[in-house]
Amino acid sequence: MSAPDIHVSVKELRMLFPVKRGLRDRVLGVKQWVHAVDGVSLDLHRGECLALVGESGSGKTTLANCIAGSLVPVAGEIWLDDVMLARAGALTGPSARERARLVQVIFQDPTSALNRRLRVGSVLAEPFLVHKICNRAEATARVEALLARVGLPPETAEHYSHELNASQRQRVVIARALALEPRVLIADEPIAKLDVSMQGQILNLIDQLRRELDLSVIFITHDLSVVRQIATRVAVLYLGQLMELQETEAFFGSEGHPYSQALLRSTPRLRVTAEDGELHTIKGEIPSPIDVPPGCPFLSRCPEGDDDCGRTRPPLQARSAGGLVACFKRAAADLAATDGAATGSHG
Amino acid sequence: MSDPLLNVEGLTTVYRVGGREFAALNDVSLTCQAGERLGVVGESGSGKSVLALSLLNIIRAPGRITAGRVVFADQDILHLRRRELRRVRGGGMSLIFQDAAASLTPVYPVGVQLGEIIRTHLSVTRAEAARQSVQLLGQVGIPEPERRLRAFPSELSGGMKQRVAIAMALASEPSLLIADDPTSAVDVTIQAQILELLRHLVDERQLALIYISHDFRVVSTICERLLILYAGGIVEQGDAPSVFNAPRHPYTDALLACSPSVEEYRFPFATLPGNPPNPRDDPIVGCQFHPRCPRALDVCARETPHEESPTAGHSYRCWSPLDAPGRGSSAAASAP
Lengths: 347, 336
Ligand SMILES: Nc1ncnc2c1ncn2[C@@H]1O[C@H](COP(=O)(O)OP(=O)(O)OP(=O)(O)O)[C@@H](O)[C@H]1O
Ligand SMILES: Nc1ncnc2c1ncn2[C@@H]1O[C@H](COP(=O)(O)OP(=O)(O)O)[C@@H](O)[C@H]1O
Ligand code: SF4
Ligand code: SF4
Ligand SMILES: [Mg+2]
Ligand SMILES: [Mg+2]
Known about the structure:
The complex is a heterodimer. Chain A is of the alpha/beta class.
């Protein structure tokens, strides 16, 4: 297999937010932090669709915002090709304007993303005018081309966003993100607010754009059924830490991280009768990212965890079957398998 | 068969939008037996929430119920006086709203809100209500229920709020629980927990359940009979296996095809082109689905299809239904 063409590289990224403190804490001088992204390293390959999954609060949006340059990381580095975009405490390299032409983010809620008082045509012309790419007259033609790209008829330019349905609105949001011809597109739960009947259109569109425009895409979601169809690789985040990074087929076909498995089992699937197969659940909720325990972050909910898992953080390790997993049990199983029948366990 | 717990006939609810009235719910008839778990599936705007509100007769202006009957436990819901209605709403039929915030008031701790419901319905002392509140919170899977009684809704996660909303719906000891898409705002992990919880509670208390969602996958984990709503009308209803294995209505078929699957790779996604009817536009004559339907005939744009029920436990409204499965589907053979 040829070495992957790395487009964006995230290295040991940390993003903390100060917790809003009450009077007592201020008097006592207690300083607490939300560990939103807690030491994440991962690469985005050129032209791929990397799915970023995890429950809400796991740090997906924060990671996206760091890559887009709307947040300044506390530690770590972000590289795009050979340009450093950010390091601890500073955005580096391109100006905000240049950055907008490299990385664009589309958010979950197309309704709040669009100005109600502007016609779609003006919404889409704005990036061209702000970035002084062309004059107003030329912008009209460009807007038409953008609308065609996302499968909307030219008349859409005359409409206000509230006259469109949710799927059409999300297309407009995508069109606006494409205006500056970015190289990296981050889609943050772009279908979470859409009906199942509308989701397919947007997913097909994102996939088509990725291939036609050679975009590198980070697709954020918590629905693994969608991941199976659209992603080339899957990154699983929990409490701001990377639990697993895996090729899509292997992710769905092998015994991955216990958290990945819990997500998979919770994903709804069509059942012919309600008695058709047990409904698997995972206990509890994602814990507070303020006091992150020293050991494995998933220990409090893990069906396989034991006391050993609570001592140190499991490192992200290559699996014998490919991919990376941060779990003591999986690492031990791999080791036992490679040791073969000889001793059976590690010393 | 005994009388159904809930019997709805010709229910029609209209809203006035931009100077004209449109039927958000149009001539809906359905039944729900005691202990039955009925799923309602439809796209956004199809009338799912309007149906839930209409069943409880709590439609507010600019909407009003213009026709139909809702008979619940032998009471004519649409003609009850306000006081009697409140009793029914509590004691017989409870609603879990789509948005947990709609069930909870932000300004009171959840224990106060829960205790209040228990005291109005069971006329017990304050202490007894508090005891039962703790018990209920425990039953809906809230850890440390005594402590949570003092929590304000804003201090709870989305999943916990929805659990409290479920506890509040159960507090009045209903025999029918209506859940309006209670998991649309939570993660898949919490969704699975809530489905499991509802499944357990409904079994244990032998409640009837009407579970509303836009996602076939979700209703399929909990319901035994399904009802598909399109533009305010029921286009198909039947036993879950029959609807899943052999949908007869083209809309049901298209919706099922759109359901993403975690078990297989099927890219590109099937899509359903076009939009549901917009209340601002002129009303559609004939079958409401005809502008989007791949099987439409000329008659579809002229006349509303009648309800057909060739096999017991499965009916649809369509002039050109999909084929029934070849094997053992003869209506004559199964007719008594
Ligand atoms: N208060 C209201 N005023 C005007 N129209 C309303 C009102 N409530 C509902 N409607 C209309 O009635 C129709 C059905 O709405 P309803 O809320 O029942 O949809 P739904 O199926 O619950 O959708 P969702 O999946 O988005 O919750 C829609 O066209 C909606 O715009
Ligand atoms: N601006 C902020 N200030 C304080 N905490 C934040 C901020 N943004 C995110 N967080 C916290 O960081 C964690 C990760 O959030 P987020 O990146 O939004 O996760 P996700 O997108 O996976 O749901 C959460 O606990 C969230 O509350
Ligand atoms: S390290 Fe232990 S607690 Fe963490 S996921 Fe693996 S088995 Fe579970
Ligand atoms: S009645 Fe006609 S338009 Fe309506 S669903 Fe059937 S075939 Fe399609
Ligand atoms: Mg997010
Ligand atoms: Mg609704």
